[in-house]
From TrEMBL:
InterPro entries: RBOH/FRE. This is Ferric oxidoreductase domain-containing protein. Keywords: FAD, Flavoprotein, Membrane, NADP, Oxidoreductase, Transmembrane, Transmembrane helix. The chain crosses the membrane at residues 12-31, 51-71, 102-120. The keyword NADP applies. The lineage of its organism: Eukaryota, Metazoa, Chordata, Craniata, Vertebrata. It comes from Ameca splendens.
């Protein structure tokens, strides 16, 4: 067990930190779109707004991160500075492609969640436009901005779309 911790401890720590950042970003942005500022959009879309925005934040982070493990100059600089301190840390830099693949898998996962949430968004926008009940709040919100150059909440402007 001691050899495993010595050999794999840094890799596990880096992966846990990366997963923790992803989880924090997801929860933070999910909760950020549940505030009153987005009330009317949530009336139209429900939870799908948060389900689209949270993986988008994680996608931004992971797409920024995916190139770092395969930058040769960065790896050379890190190997040179770490070589004098710890051989275990230098050995972890040789596993850069594994981390690159893990980030790619996370990008694929968050892309799928993001796309599915937007499909639900489209369906909710269509339902709000098609349900022509004047006492139904999503329909009333869909009718905002029907004039020229007016801002609107529902991008589906007619029920023939």
């Amino acid at each position: 067990m001691g050899n495993f911790v010595a050999n794999e401890g840094l890799s596990i720590f880096v992966i846990l930190v990366w997963l923790g950042i992803n989880a924090f970003l997801f929860v933070h942005f999910y909760m950020a779109f549940l505030v009153d500022q987005w009330f009317y959009t949530r009336v139209l879309l429900g939870q799908a707004l948060s389900w689209a925005r949270a993986p988008a934040a994680c996608l931004n982070f992971n797409c920024m991160l995916i190139l770092l493990p395969v930058c040769r100059n960065l790896l050379s600089i890190l190997r040179g500075t770490i070589q004098c301190c710890s051989r275990t840390a230098a050995r972890q830099l040789d596993r850069n492609l594994t981390f690159h693949k893990l980030v790619a898998y996370m990008i694929a996962f968050h892309t799928a969640v993001h796309i599915i949430a937007h499909l639900f968004n489209f369906e909710f926008f269509m339902d709000a436009q098609l349900n022509r009940n004047s006492s139904h709040l999503p329909f009333i919100l869909s009718e905002i901005g029907t004039g020229d150059n007016a801002s609107f909440l529902n991008p589906i402007r007619s029920n023939e779309t």
